[in-house]
Amino acid sequence: MTHHYDVVILGAGPAGTACALALQHSGLRVALVDKDQFPRDKVCGDAIPGLALKAIRQLSPTLYEELYALPQKAETRDSRLFAPDGGDIRVRWQIQTFNSPRLHFDARLLEMVQAHTTTQVQLDFSVKDIHITAEQVTLLPANGQAPLTCQLLIGCDGANSVAARKLTQRPLDRAHQCVAVRAYFQGLIDTDETTTEFYFLREYLAGYFWIFPVGDGVYNVGFGMLSSDVAAQKLDLKKVLLAITREHPQVAKRFAQASQLSKVSGFGLPLGGKSRPISGTRFLLCGDAASLIDPLQGHGIDTAIQSGILAARQAMRCFEQQDFSAAQMRWYEQAVYQQIGKKLARSYRLMRFISTKPWLVNAGFGLARHAWVKKWLLKVVG
Ligand SMILES: Cc1cc2nc3c(=O)[nH]c(=O)nc-3n(C[C@H](O)[C@H](O)[C@H](O)COP(=O)(O)OP(=O)(O)OC[C@H]3O[C@@H](n4cnc5c(N)ncnc54)[C@H](O)[C@@H]3O)c2cc1C
């Protein structure tokens, strides 16, 4: 027995849930499937970009308020950035935002889908293969459950996307791939629960080490770098992360009495800044499945949500015009490029430019102490 839908959204992370919320009044029969049960952990820095919340607010102020009311969070207004030479600057962000463990943040988004839409949510549904014909899409699950069919597939299945792998040509590209690790700690000294901290380290540019408060005295501590640099330097990032907390002159004293609450876990970050196919006949890709992570800062929750909403608009257009062709999907590709891709390309160029120049980063920090330079820099990095 198969179940047929107008739209199947594959993956219930920020991209998939935002897409389902944006289809709220579409009248379409929508299924949202995920391989996991929720709440589920997702390896992340847990810093929710202000633009992610802005996109939800533009969708619906009520949904925004519901998301903002999430109790497990640390509201963050400031960042402290440390240069390779140890100098630091403080930055106050314009948009209100928070950090929240993805365990809770993603579960809240899914609850909102269940409360406000007629979407059929199917969890524990791991897709192993996808077939597309001129008439329909078939999703084959891994565990002997009935397949799903639909008119349009929206692939929101993250960094290891089955949809991207099966439906587009995408060779491994370590120059556009980052790898990052994180663990939770408590008992840090000299921390402030409203400030995120970034350390740019001379030996590991253009990656960075972070300390992000996530509420209740808990900190998400992590480190990420370009995969090509990790491979070239033969680094074990899990070991590097713990070594920084023990040995780095500015960091180690902060961890003197800290306790580690979780093991160090890692995951890939598919970076944007490169033109790739993200749609085709009867399918669209969003979020990490479309490689939309900011290359300089490593955030992707905002672009996942933005692209999920753009995909929902494209889906409605497809059904209005009864056209699911690759040509019809170009509107989506152009919209993603205009709203997201252009900025990611600029960010990628900047990341590559500074990656071998610690002196430039130090000089940039020095200059950024001047108010107008800081303002300009904030505009450049978003
Ligand atoms: C260490 C690290 C730190 C990061 N820090 C930040 C940060 O602080 N801020 C930020 O904005 N971004 C950060 N990112 C990036 C961010 O995690 C991603 O950009 C974001 O999660 C993308 O959302 P998504 O919905 O596209 O994919 P995901 O959040 O990965 O969701 C994909 C969903 O698809 C499901 N799925 C996958 N495969 C299948 C399958 N075969 N069948 C069914 N379901 C499937 C998964 O279970 C998952 O629920 C970080 C990433 C890493 C690795």
From TrEMBL:
<dbReference type="GO" id="GO:0016628">
    <property type="term" value="F:oxidoreductase activity, acting on the CH-CH group of donors, NAD or NADP as acceptor"/>
</dbReference>
<dbReference type="GO" id="GO:0071949">
    <property type="term" value="F:FAD binding"/>
</dbReference>
<dbReference type="InterPro" id="IPR050407">
    <property type="entry name" value="Geranylgeranyl_reductase"/>
</dbReference>
<feature type="domain" description="FAD-binding">
    <location>
        <begin position="5"/>
        <end position="308"/>
    </location>
</feature>
<protein>
    <submittedName>
        <fullName>Geranylgeranyl reductase</fullName>
    </submittedName>
</protein>
<dbReference type="InterPro" id="IPR036188">
    <property type="entry name" value="FAD/NAD-bd_sf"/>
</dbReference>
<dbReference type="InterPro" id="IPR002938">
    <property type="entry name" value="FAD-bd"/>
</dbReference>
<dbReference type="InterPro" id="IPR011777">
    <property type="entry name" value="Geranylgeranyl_Rdtase_fam"/>
</dbReference>
<dbReference type="Pfam" id="PF01494">
    <property type="entry name" value="FAD_binding_3"/>
</dbReference>
